[in-house]
Amino acid sequence: MKVKLLAGGSNGDPKEHYLTSFIINDSLAVDAGSLPLVLSRSQQLLIRDVIITHSHLDHLAGLPLMLDNIFADMEISVSAYSTKETIAALHDHIFNNVIWPDFSSFCNRLGARLIFEERQALTPFRLGELEILLVPVNHTVPTCGVIVDDGQSAVAISSDTTDTEEIWRIAGQNPRLKALFMECSYPNRLERLAYLYGHLCPSLLLKQVQKVGKDVPCYAYHIKAAYLREIMTELEGLAGVVAAEPCVEYEV
Ligand SMILES: [Zn+2]
Ligand SMILES: [Zn+2]
């Protein structure tokens, strides 16, 4: 399985993480924050499925913009998967014909459109070769982390969360688990703030890694740009944990 963090949009330091999206095997996106800012139009046209973990803008801002880029040439509909609450938020607050056209209500000349696909947390579903499991995590709005499993390898992506249990328990029980992608928004000195805002700092991240209890690499992402250097230094002290490099393809 190929996993790539897209976190760009900056002309400055390429290590900075701004908006959040992951691309898996070139065609599945987990979150859509930065898709049209980082991918070429032809790469955007390869994306068939988008899982949206929650309703915050840094995780979905790229979806309406990407659809505008590719809509005329889409041969197959783009499906957006999420829980009922997040689909409702997308529809009511983004694709509401005020902020952006409702791309789910009309087709292009090839009969393709945006399809909203509600999925239940903790009920696995398949997207081609991949089995997807949405697992509720602990954030300020309804949010799910994602476990993606191709039958040989599995990865767990935390989405935005503070200290949480279920996703790490399930990930730890998966014998194919090869990597963790864990958010780390704040430095340790702001641990209380991180907890309050539903995020992690390196010390809280380490607690999550220990809950998984497996010797697999953990890639930290969603690092707030203002604290990048501070967080990177703190992560250096944690065995098995590194900051995820934007636009680097991780083969797991
Ligand atoms: Zn969030
Ligand atoms: Zn976020």
Number of domain modules = 1
- What CATH first level would be assigned? Alpha Beta
Bound small molecules, which ones? zinc ion
Distance between the termini: 5 Å
Computed CA radius of gyration, to the nearest angstrom: 17 Å
Largest pleated sheet: 7 strands, mixed
Assigned CATH superfamily: Ribonuclease Z/Hydroxyacylglutathione hydrolase-like
Number of helices: 9
The parts where pLDDT drops under 50 for at least 5 residues are none
Classify the fold: give the CATH topology.
Answer: Metallo-beta-lactamase, Chain A
Portion in beta strands:
15-25%
**Proportion of helical residues:** 25-40%
Structural summary, described in words:
This protein has 252 residues and is an alpha/beta fold. It has a single domain, classed as Metallo-beta-lactamase, Chain A (4-Layer Sandwich), CATH 3.60.15.10. It is 26% helix and 25% strand. It has nine helices and 14 strands. It has helices at residues 35-38, 41-45, 57-60, 62-70, 84-93, 166-173, 191-196, 202-212, 228-236; strands at 2-6, 21-24, 28-30, 49-51, 78-82, 114-118, 125-127, 130-136, 144-149, 154-157, 177-183, 218-221, 241-243, 249-251. The strands form two sheets. A seven-stranded mixed β-sheet has the order 6-5-4-3-2-1-14. The chain has a seven-stranded mixed β-sheet with strand order 7-8-9-10-11-12-13, with helices on one face. Strand 7 (125-127) and strand 8 form a beta hairpin. The termini are close together. Bound molecules: zinc ion (2 copies). One zinc ion (ZN) binds at residues 54, 56, 139, 160.
